[in-house]
Design brief:
- By secondary structure, the chain is mostly helical.
- It has a domain of about 110 residues: Serine Threonine Protein Phosphatase 5, Tetratricopeptide repeat.
- Helices cover about 75% and strands about 0% of the residues.
- It contains 12 helices and no strands.
- Helix 2 packs parallel to helix 4, helix 4 packs antiparallel against helix 5 and helix 10 runs parallel beside helix 12.
- About 45% of the residues are buried.
């Protein structure tokens, strides 16, 4: 039986609702009265709000029209590209999401755009591109627990155990309260037969999350494997 790994698909950053609220709400009443059709001067935030409503109503034609209009109304705006790409991803249009996020990067290499691209590339099995995106996230902004976890997880999925180990070690140093990181660090150590080191990691994870069944299971499994390994060596 294999060790249980904590996986994180990642939460995409940026949404139509969040961007509309942050940018549009203070000005909507003056710039776009209720019931008025969008015009050439309609701000991108209004198009994003209309797209969000269309998506909720499953009106794909209107959603597509408003998403394109939002991009046209704010060309080169990375925040709009972030929201539009996230909407496309939610509609299972992954290639369109990647295209729009990359367009946004031509204006500004923001950590949110890079983070979303990292997740999207990984979902397509493009590990090299995913790793490059997450690595760049860590160069354009201070390291975060989420970005480091995603990078370490991607290295592990790409079978680059050495770099996965290094990244999880960095993660547990900077963010020592991440039980999932300790668990996955333990898994990598166990996969190399380093059971005593794995036990140290699992125990730290279990201390932080004593009710996590996967970590408790992994700790017990590592203890048994360590015992069996010692018996075989004697």
């Amino acid at each position: 039986m294999r060790y249980s790994t904590a996986r994180s698909s990642g939460y995409f950053r940026g949404s139509l609702v969040a961007l509309t609220i942050a940018i549009a709400v203070p000005a909507l009443a003056q710039q776009h009265p209720p019931g008025a059709p969008p015009s050439a001067s309609t701000p991108a935030s209004v198009h994003l709000g209309l797209a969000d409503g269309a998506i909720k109503r499953r009106d794909s034609a209107m959603a597509e029209r408003e998403l394109k209009a939002a991009l046209a109304a704010a060309p080169g705006d990375p925040a709009v590209a972030l929201a539009v790409g996230t909407a496309y991803y939610g509609l299972s249009r992954v290639d369109d999401a990647i295209r729009v996020w990359n367009q946004g990067l031509t204006a500004a290499r923001t950590p949110d755009l890079l983070f979303n691209l990292g997740i999207a590339y990984r979902g397509k099995g493009l590990f090299a591109q995913s790793i490059a995106s997450f690595e760049e996230v860590l160069t354009v902004a201070p390291p975060t627990e989420d970005a480091l976890f995603q990078l370490a997880d991607t290295y592990a999925r790409a079978k680059d155990t050495a770099k996965a180990l290094d990244t999880y070690a960095r993660l547990t140093t900077l963010f020592p309260n991440s039980a999932a990181a300790w668990n996955n660090l333990g898994n990598l150590r166990a996969s190399l037969g380093r059971f005593d080191e794995a036990i140290v990691a699992y125990r730290e994870g279990a201390r932080l999350a004593p009710n996590d069944a996967d970590i408790v299971f992994n700790l017990g499994r590592a203890l048994q494997d360590s015992h069996d390994n010692a018996g075989a060596a004697s």
